[in-house]
Amino acid sequence: EEKLNLDDSQWEDIHVVTGALKMFFRELPEPLFPYCSFEQFVEAIKIQDNATRIKCIRSLVKKLPRPNYDTMKILFEHLQKIAAKESVNLMSTQSLGIVFGPTLLRPEKETGNMAVHMLYQNQIVELMLSEYSKIFG
């Protein structure tokens, strides 16, 4: 309910805007990729055949609750536009995966596999950005 003045100079720094976006997703009661689907997405990203991997990720995305799917589609469309301007902003799909992977997709309970999970989280976001049209099209 707080009214924000987006003309305020504090919003000119893109890092503030990005930080606010990441904080919004991090503070949701459940991640954008629901806890119950974490292991399924991890297993999907491990598939060796790229076409099968994309098909599996697409299927998992389509099964998400509608609000999650709609939000994800808009967010990834936006992040894809950011990646398209990598020469200016230095944010590749890989960089965006590193930044947003752990925020959007995480296990309900952290285990000793945190470093391995982080690698998969990054790869999932990266794949979804690079194959956006196949996954959301």
From TrEMBL:
It comes from the Eukaryota. GO terms for molecular function: GTPase activator activity. Signal peptide: none annotated. GO terms for biological process: signal transduction. It is a peripheral membrane protein. One of its GO terms (cellular component) is cytoplasm. It is found in: Cytoplasm; Membrane. Pfam families: RhoGAP. Keywords: Cytoplasm, GTPase activation, Membrane. Residues 1-136 form the Rho-GAP domain. InterPro entries: Rho-GAP, Rho_GTPase_activation_prot, RhoGAP_dom. Its main location: cytoplasm. This is RHG15 protein. The gene is Arhgap15.
